[in-house]
Amino acid sequence: MAFLSGCVEADFALVRDRCELSDSALSKIAKTLEEAGYIDVGKGRAGRKVRTWLALTPEGGNALAAHLDALQAVAAAARSSASTRLT
User: Fold this and answer.
1) Which residue of 9, 16, 31, 67 is surrounded by the most CB atoms within 10 Å?
2) Tens of pLDDT, residues 29-79
3) How far apart are alpha carbons 65 and 87 in whole angstroms?
4) Is 65 exposed, middle or buried (0-12, 13-18, 19+ CB in 10 A)?
5) What digits encode the pLDDT tens for the residues 1-29?
């Protein structure tokens, strides 16, 4: 989802290659995220080839932002705990 947050939509093959995933792994992830309403999966033609396009939904963007906020809170708590132990 983080990769998709930087674009309007992305070709399945581009996401697969940039995230270093197999076709089957990305297909499973995309299906799960689509069922959760976090991404849209669409098919279209690019020349003679059928392509699969992935796009982050507004709900997916909100979920990603909430996840990143939670990770930052965990990191801040760990930094605070570490500095307390050092003093």
Assistant:
1) 16
2) 999 999 999 999 999 888 899 999 999 999 999 999 999 999 999 999 998
3) 33
4) exposed
5) 899 999 999 999 999 999 999 999 999 99
Task: Please report where in the chains the tokens 């093959």 appear, as a residue.
Answer: 13
For residue 30, the one-letter residue type is A
Question: Which listed CATH number (3.40.50.2000, 1.10.3860.10, 1.10.10.10, 3.40.30.10) goes with 4-86?
Answer: 1.10.10.10
Q: How far is CA 13 from CA 21, 50, 54, 66, 70, in A?
A: 10, 12, 10, 27, 30
State how far the Cα of 83 lies from the Cα of 86, in Å rounded to an integer: 5
